[in-house]
Amino acid sequence: MKPFSILLCILLLAGSLTGCDSKQIATSEVTEVSETQEADQGGQASVKDDESQKDVVKVAIGSPDHSTLVKAVQAADLVNVLSNAGPFTVFAPTNAAFEKLPSGTLEELTKPENKADLQNILQYHVYVGALNADQLTDGQTLNQVNGDNITIQVKEGKIMVNNSATIVASVKASNGIVHIMDGVLLPPKK
């Protein structure tokens, strides 16, 4: 029997022995347990599974070259979204790619008041659907999660995005694929 069921049985028994309204005790106890359980749950990203293939977020977390991206995804509250079933194609800039941005850019974007801007930039790096590198073709346009498009270029066997970032490697994930890139994509200004 689960601890919750045992606790509920004890409370019901105690309520009937003391003449209390057992329904009131059981209801209040169930409410307290439910609220505690909800507070402890962290969404899909909090699921502990060391045996299955890693999702796109766990791929990034496992890469020492993507700690900046992971911090940005956490600041934008996108961890649970990207841990869901997907499938997603994530164009993942490395730490070195973020270092190419003007000084202070990332620090400014990770401030709480700039969360929407950070989400927009990060969502510009995500396509809904799993596209392997061999499925990316020259001139292909992809509509990203933020609603803007990116364009793929293939030159001399290298795959570039928006003529600004090159895919240097790809890693399959349980919910899509991560294309590691040497640049950060910035959405078009509106």
TrEMBL record:
Source domain of life: Bacteria
Keyword entries, A-Z: Signal
Disordered: annotated span: 31-51
Domain FAS1 as annotated: residue spans: 53-185
Stored SUPFAM superfamilies: FAS1 domain (SSF82153)
Signal sequence extent: 1-19
PANTHER family: FI19380P1 (PTHR10900:SF77), PERIOSTIN-RELATED (PTHR10900)
Name this polypeptide is given: Fasciclin domain-containing protein
Native species: Xanthocytophaga flava
